[in-house]
Amino acid sequence: MVSCLEIRHNVAKPVAGGEAVKCGSGVSQRIEKSWVVLVSLENFEHDRCVDLFARRDGSYGFEEFRRDVEDRGAWTPVQFYSGAVYPSREAALAAAVRSVAWLPDAIRQNPAAQKLLPQNAN
């Protein structure tokens, strides 16, 4: 079983500052093969997940997924978050925490996940 926090890769270089911007059509999609998933955070029921990823251009993003029995357990995008572009892993994580209702509680309950947050956010 996958734990609530699974660190897959270290981060590459961040891009220069700025808020999130839309790229492409903004339509949610599964994580593209060229994107590197940095961390995957699951809820306690293991039916929701947020992937934080890095793109080849040095930008970052996140997407929320759900897993249902009727989908044979496949992870399906829930929102349209993957179209937003963030300048850093920290900015993408902060946006995910603001956007995904269950994520702050999952992070608070997981000591390994708490290490992802800035010290003053714990």
Describe what you observe in this structure.
There is one protein chain. This protein is of the alpha+beta class. It has one domain (5-114). 17% of the residues lie in helices and 26% in strands. A five-stranded antiparallel beta sheet has the order 1-3-4-5-6. Strands 2-7 form a two-stranded antiparallel ribbon. It starts with a strand and ends in an 8-residue tail after the last helix.
User: Ranges with pLDDT <50 over ≥5 residues?
Assistant: 1-29
Largest sheet: 5 strands, antiparallel
How are helices and strands ordered from N to C?
Answer: EEEEEEEHHH
Strand content: 25-35%
Helix percentage: 10-25%
Radius of gyration, taken over Cα atoms and rounded to an integer in Å: 14 Å
Number of strands: 7
Question: How many helical elements?
Answer: 3
Cross-sheet strand order for the largest sheet: 1-3-4-5-6
The mean pLDDT is 75
What structural class do helix, strand and pairing data support?
alpha+beta
Into how many domains do the coordinates divide? 1
The coarse silhouette is globular
Distance between the termini: 26 Å
